[in-house]
Design goal:
CATH superfamily: NAD(P)-binding Rossmann-like Domain
CATH architecture: 3-Layer(aba) Sandwich
Protein name: Short-subunit dehydrogenase
Number of helices: 11
Helix content: 40-55%
Family: Belongs to the short-chain dehydrogenases/reductases (SDR) family.
Number of domains: 1
Organism: Blastococcus colisei
InterPro entries: KR_dom (IPR057326), NAD(P)-bd_dom_sf (IPR036291), Sc_DH/Rdtase_CS (IPR020904), SDR_fam (IPR002347)
Strand content: 5-15%
Distance between the termini: 23 Å
GO molecular function, one term: oxidoreductase activity
């Protein structure tokens, strides 16, 4: 495919080296397109080589892709080193890789619960760990993709919520550790983004979709992957500490004690008493499948 034309070569990202995990599809791939269009050189990291190659070919010959498992520290270090060898350094890292299980705790295998934490939280930590020595050389920026799930809860998302809350707290502590080195750290909090992962979940679990549609305001609404990538790439340029997608999710974050408080919990429990049995019947119909059809969460090693 033809290379993407650089539309704004004088932006803050022009000439910067950007590494993005989970870059084969969804938010990661769209963010890569936005960064490349602003003049960045992008390293796409993930576990779907054919998909990664397709996106890299679309971006053009000045970009690269690396197959790597975000839960494998050595593989991530090798991906960072290849990026540095190719681009001469590293300015920005985006820890985006993630999976979401199609289970409740009662219906889940221990593997699916642990795998969700491993990919979403440990993967973000290992990505930052591998990249920081090079990021420090250029006083660069770290963007950690958390979620609105960091400060909200929904039945069927216990492991995912726990992981994303952990990513937010990890980012807050990391920011304090590296600020004196000139490194900035952001946590991004998208809500429902129109990606393969979200579509897979709603296709497999009709009850989950019905529950999502009953959530108030931005917590129940879909946002396009393009709009999400626009917000994320703006953060890469401004190096802010928080990104909310859509922006109104920031209000929910500020009111998180109310959203998860006793009164809200009692209302949620009343709804869950009906919805959870329906959800678990949907899960049983999957005959043991615990991740979306486009997810690599079921692989014995690795995830996007």
């Amino acid at each position: 495919m033809a290379s993407i034309r650089r539309q704004r070569p004088r932006t803050p990202l022009a000439g910067k080296a950007v590494l993005i995990t989970g870059a084969a599809r969804g938010i990661g791939a769209e963010l890569a397109r936005r960064a490349a269009a602003r003049g960045a050189r992008v390293a796409l990291v993930g576990l779907e080589p054919e998909q990664l190659a397709t996106v890299a070919d679309e971006l053009g010959p000045e970009h690269l892709w690396v197959e790597a498992d975000v839960t494998d520290a050595a593989a991530l270090e090798a991906a960072v080193q290849r990026t540095v060898d190719t681009f001469g350094g590293l300015d920005v890292v985006v820890a985006n890789a993630g999976i979401a299980p199609l289970t409740t705790v009662m219906t889940s295998s221990a593997h699916a619960l642990a795998r969700t934490i491993e990919v979403n939280l440990i993967g973000a930590m290992l990505t930052a760990h591998a990249a920081l020595p090079e990021i420090a050389k250029r006083k660069g920026h770290v963007q950690l993709i958390s979620s609105a799930a960091a400060f909200t809860v929904l039945p069927g998302m216990s492991a995912y919520c726990a992981a994303k809350a952990g990513v937010e707290r990890f980012g807050d502590a990391l920011r304090l550790e590296v600020a004196h080195r000139g490194i900035t750290v952001a946590s991004a909090h998208p809500t429902w983004i129109d990606t393969d992962m979200v579509r897979d979940t709603e296709e497999a679990l009709p009850t989950f979709e019905a529950t999502r549609k009953q959530l108030p305001g931005p917590l129940g609404a879909f946002t396009s992957v393009e709009a999400c990538a626009d917000a994320l790439v703006e953060n890469l340029e401004t190096r802010g500490r928080r990104v909310f997608v859509p922006g109104s999710v920031g209000v929910v974050s500020a009111l998180r004690q109310l959203v998860t408080g006793v009164v809200a919990e009692k209302v949620a429990m009343a709804v869950s008493a009906k919805r959870v049995p329906q959800l678990e019947r949907d899960i049983a119909a999957l005959n043991g499948r615990e991740f979306g059809k486009n997810s690599v969460g079921d692989r014995s090693k690795g995830a996007a």
